[in-house]
């Protein structure tokens, strides 16, 4: 069986394609929302976070021969956990990651801390934050909180957590992307954005449209770069990935 670690639209599409081609696949998700999406596409699903020992045990208990890591480019902890678990369990590990894009017209930074420093030194006014709900507390504590408008996934779980962090209704934009250039411009214009902060999520995550929208509006787009990880085997092209996986059918 192939254990596909989900968290992106790419990973779910890969799992669906593999299952449709006759592979025995189990798709791993963390959230209720992820499970709801997966139930429409694949048969076998496991839900819940796994540490290294739990992942190793899952691999051994379910006769997993390969871990296919399709998690979000910023889920570095999960990727490192999967690499270590695969080594301990003696099974193969393969990483699929969205291709990187040209960040021309963007302000590229290496961390959340650096993003905050740049914004604090260069921006006065509304900060349009599209880095995901997991980073909200950090940005709340490290930039001008009252200036943040956070674009988040409109699920009950995320909205409740955002409100618990102290965000008011006018600071929350619950809407699911990705969006076109024009939609990004409309949302930022509505909120009077002076800067966007986002992640290097890749083409599927709408990064190019975000950068272009900011460029057309004449405001900076601060992009937090992915962490560089030494993956045992990495693919950015699905055709090459599927060819590699033929031996696991």
Descriptive account of the structure:
The chain is an alpha/beta fold and 249 residues long. It folds into two domains: 2-99 and 228-248, NAD(P)-binding Rossmann-like Domain (Rossmann fold); 107-224, HUPs (Rossmann fold, 3-Layer(aba) Sandwich). Helices cover 40% and strands 20% of the residues. The protein contains ten helices and twelve strands. The chain has helices at residues 9-20, 32-39, 52-61, 76-89, 112-122, 136-142, 156-164, 181-191, 207-217, 238-244; strands spanning 2-5, 25-29, 45-47, 66-69, 92-96, 107-109, 126-129, 148-152, 172-174, 193-199, 221-224, 234-235. The protein has a six-stranded parallel sheet, with helices on both faces. The protein has a six-stranded parallel sheet with strand order 6-11-10-7-8-9, with helices on both faces. Helix 2 (32-39) links the parallel strand 2 and strand 3. Helix 3 crosses helix 4 and helix 8 (181-191) packs across helix 9. It is elongated. It starts with a strand and ends in a 5-residue tail after the last helix.
């Amino acid at each position: 069986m192939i254990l596909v670690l989900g968290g992106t639209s790419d990973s779910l599409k890969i799992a669906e394609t593999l299952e449709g081609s006759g592979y025995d696949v189990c798709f791993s998700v963390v959230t209720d929302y992820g499970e709801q999406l997966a139930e429409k596409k694949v048969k076998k699903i496991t839900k819940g976070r796994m540490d290294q020992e739990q992942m190793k045990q899952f691999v051994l208990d379910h006769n997993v021969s390969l871990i296919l890591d399709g998690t979000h480019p910023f889920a570095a902890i999960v990727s490192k956990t999967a690499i270590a678990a695969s080594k301990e369990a003696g099974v193969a590990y393969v990483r699929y990651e969205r291709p990187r894009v040209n960040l021309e017209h963007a302000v590229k930074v290496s961390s959340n801390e650096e993003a905050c420093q740049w914004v604090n030194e260069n921006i006065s006014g509304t900060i349009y934050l599209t880095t995901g709900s997991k980073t909200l507390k950090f940005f709340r504590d490290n930039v001008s909180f009252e200036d943040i408008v956070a674009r988040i996934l409109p699920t009950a779980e995320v909205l409740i957590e955002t409100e618990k962090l102290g965000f008011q209704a006018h600071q929350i934009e619950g809407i699911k992307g990705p969006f076109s250039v024009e939609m990004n411009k409309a949302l930022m214009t509505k909120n009077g954005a002076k800067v966007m902060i986002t992640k290097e999520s890749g083409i599927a995550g709408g990064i190019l449209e975000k950068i272009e929208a900011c460029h057309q509006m004449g405001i900076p787009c601060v992009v937090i770069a992915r962490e560089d990880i030494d993956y045992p085997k990495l693919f950015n092209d699905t055709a090459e990935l599927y060819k590699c996986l033929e031996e696991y059918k």
